[in-house]
Amino acid sequence: MRNILLSAATVLLAGTTLVGSANSAELPRGAAHNIVLVHGAFVDQTSWQPVADILSKKGYNVTLVENPLTSLTADVDATKQALAKQDGKTVLVGHSWGGVVITQAGNDPKVSALVYVSAFAPEVGQSLALLSKAGPPTEGGNAIHPDAKGNLYIDPKVFPSAVAADLPPEIAEHLANSQLPLNHVAFEAPVSIAAWRDKPTFYVITTKDKVIAPEVQKLFATRMKAQITEVAGSHASLVVHAKQVAEVIEKAALAK
């Protein structure tokens, strides 16, 4: 999966990374220098690589969390380990399932702002299972099924159109066939902390999303009183629209 996503980033974002390289001056005064990126279910941390490349070239210290996807506790622990290594103010960012993780882990005193990118944003006591029932059903949501061991996958035949319609078909199909499962234990676990209640919060709504309905994303963002940015892309917008996502993260780095 790493190689295919990096290939996608190279093909789709060559111009963007060149822009980032040309602007690798000092960071704005008072900006958080650290960015921690938390990936969602069914993919690995390389899904964030296009955004990470842009931010790194601008001088930010970027960390990609590798979620085990075995439980909420395990993923939160992985994120907390990454936060423990940061020196100073840090923006914590989550995509999809990663939104649940940053909601629980984001109360760390180093975290200066939270960014949700087409992500679930639970309230205390809410689980992904509960949130997935909110709003209208989606093509991607309906295609999530457990295997014999209780691990959840998106139907590979549905994955390309539901998750990554704006990626090249061969890349979307490869991702569909190399998914990382999310354990049902993670799906059912409620959060006990809602870090967004005490942190500046930003939300990127993906208006062509077929996994989390855009209307539901807007409900999450409104409830959190987040600063909202809309991107005309799919659930894979963190790859295809990496430049716009990175711009939101940079705004969050200046939040007070």
TrEMBL record:
Transmembrane segments: none annotated. SUPFAM superfamilies: alpha/beta-Hydrolases (SSF53474). InterPro entries: AB_hydrolase_1, AB_hydrolase_fold, Sec-Metab_Biosynth_Hydrolase. Residues 35-247 form the AB hydrolase-1 domain. Residues 1-24 form the signal peptide. Keywords: Hydrolase, Signal. GO terms for molecular function: hydrolase activity. It holds the Pfam family Abhydrolase_6. PANTHER family: AB HYDROLASE-1 DOMAIN-CONTAINING PROTEIN-RELATED (PTHR37017), ESTERASE_LIPASE_THIOESTERASE DOMAIN-CONTAINING PROTEIN (PTHR37017:SF11). This is Hydrolase. It comes from Bradyrhizobium japonicum.
